[in-house]
Amino acid sequence: MAHYFKSLLLLGLALASTPLVSNAQADNPLPDFATFSTNAAQEYALGRQFLRELRATTPVLSDPLINNYLENLSYKLAFSAQSQNQQLQLVLLPDRNINAFAVMGGVIGVNAGLLLYADNEAEVAAVLAHELAHIDQHHYARATQAQSGDNLLYLAA
């Protein structure tokens, strides 16, 4: 019986300290681990070029309600994360797979399958937040430079 109360007390203490831990990490921005030569204007232009090529070669869904929903949700997430990228452009693809992608310049592609199979808005938001992190951390730009050999430090990592 004493073991039961001890376990219950430990559980209560763990649950009570959870908000303290989560708040402690809320103000820590993601670190910028590498430098790269692409500036924000170049990333924006390259992202819009990618978007033009995508629309020219791949079918995209044009549903104003869904696009508006995805953009509103993305901007809420970007604002909450204090994102530096304020020029997001979302594109909805008619792919039934659960997936999304991000490229430089604030372009986020969302497969329709994500919306079809997500159980709730939180699941969609989690995927969009993940893609926003790729944009904020310039992962696409870094990978592009690594492929071209511009960033030897990135290749060594």
Explain how this protein is built.
The structure is a single chain. This protein is mainly α. The protein has a single domain (39-156), classed as Zincin-like. The chain is 62% helix and 9% strand. The protein has helices at 2-26, 40-57, 64-80, 112-117, 121-136, 139-148, 152-156, and strands spanning 89-93, 100-103, 107-111. It has a three-stranded mixed β-sheet with strand order 1-3-2, with helices on both faces. α3 (64-80) crosses α5 (121-136). The chain starts with a helix and ends with a helix.
> Stretches where pLDDT falls below 50 for ≥5 residues?
152-157
Could you tell me the CATH topology label: Zincin-like
The spatial strand order of the largest sheet comes to 1-3-2
Could you name the CATH class? Alpha Beta
Mean pLDDT: 78
Number of helices: 7
Largest sheet: 3 strands, mixed
Q: What's the CATH architecture?
A: 2-Layer Sandwich
| Share in β-strands | 5-15%
Q: Name the structural class.
A: mainly alpha
What is the first-to-last residue Cα distance?
A: 53 Å
- CA gyration radius, whole angstroms: 20 Å
Task: Tally the beta strands.
Answer: 3
Domains (count): 1
What's the CATH H-level superfamily name? Answer: Metalloproteases ("zincins"), catalytic domain
Helix content: 55-70%
In N-to-C order, the SSE pattern is: HHHEEEHHHH
